[in-house]
Write a structure and sequence with these properties.
Oligomer: heterodimer
Largest interface: A-B, 82 and 83 residues
Order of helices and strands of chain A: EEEHEEHHHHEEHH
Order of helices and strands of chain B: EEEEHEEHHHHEHH
Number of strands of chain B: 7
Largest sheet of chain B: 3 strands, antiparallel
Distance between the termini of chain A: 37 Å
Number of strands of chain A: 7
Shape of chain A: elongated
Strand order of the largest sheet of chain A: 5-4-7-6
Strand order of the largest sheet of chain B: 6-5-7
Shape of chain B: elongated
Amino acid sequence: MSADDMENPGRTGEVLTARRAGLIGCGRCGRVHGPAARACLRCGGALVGRDRMSLQRVWAWLFAGIVVYIPANIYPMLLTSQFGRTSENTILGGVIDLVDHGSYGIALIVFTASVVIPIGKFIAIAYLALSVKSAVVIRGHGRQRLYEVVEFIGRWSMIDVFVVAILAALVQFDFVATVNPGIAAVSFALSVAFTMLSAQSFDPKVIWDAYEADDT
Amino acid sequence: MTEIPRIAEADLATLVACPACDALHRMAEVPAGGRARCHRCGTLLMAPREGALTRIVMLSATALVLMVAAVFFPFLELQAGGLHQRSSVFDAVMAFSEGLMLPLSVAVAALIVLLPLARFVAILYALAPMALGWAPAAHAAAAFRLAEALKPWAMAEIFIIGVAVALVKVAGLAQVSLGPAFWAFAALVMVTALKDNFMCRLTIWKTLEERARS
């Protein structure tokens, strides 16, 4: 099926948005309301024209996420004991172990999920939040795409926490081999949750508002 | 300031504001199988499918049954030198249940079992009466809003990838065999993906609104 655009009522060179028309569009279901409406008539959710506090919440959750990501990397994620010898594995240590055992594919998955994605997300969210107020290199479409990617991919970082949970449940052979979760699992899970909240607090409409400011 | 056409209050229901960029569109009839995108930012606005309502309800009900099987049947079995260990999803959840880790145990339970479960129930509550041709139940809109809000937090599919990674890690150490719950969980992930594929937010909201009025 071809992708056909819906018709825009203000299609004379520039885009008419709900805000410009003095209306409020619901961010969940798209229903358009008059300026006085407080709750959406269709989905019942709260209506906000532009959320002024949005960026503050983005920064707050983002910093919380970065702060708890630090102990997640310093403290052990996995406590393994085999025949009485206990070894501790941090996130990076686990990846190096996997490489030593020759499982490069799995090492790559774990490394991507627990190092590349979280750090990439910190940078991407900070960039998006900064780009709202200052001149930027990437145009609206690029930033919209970046936001979609960040929202989609963030939750996949949780993999490592689940791996630890499964290993700890499975490998319980008393003296021979036991695996226990380390404290880093908690801070890593928190870091993922905080950055997810940060991305959710970001209102993508502010990406596009910047373009209206200069042509009004 | 450019002139803004005045829009009458009664016409508001015929408009759609793009949830991502706020651009206004006039609601058009989108045929089943077609797609409507925002003409400014390209966000998918509507993608209605033939018989979507019935399918979503059926798939959610299936997922609900599979989840019960996935939680309580043995998930993985590990054998190493005469020792063997069986564990269910419930055991994986309880792995963090000692001391400081307890909150994480609760979080894991929520992410892989409780939230997906809540989401299926909410979807069933909101859509099942309409699929049967009745008017939507009271608070159907609130239930569907909940289901949408839970979407990023229901992480069953991520758990399955985590299982795969964990299996490779222990493969050298011991013999692993997959239990019935593993297959139930894998099926659950497929069913959920299929269901989300049929779900068109805007169409569902519009249908909910229209059916509630009549």
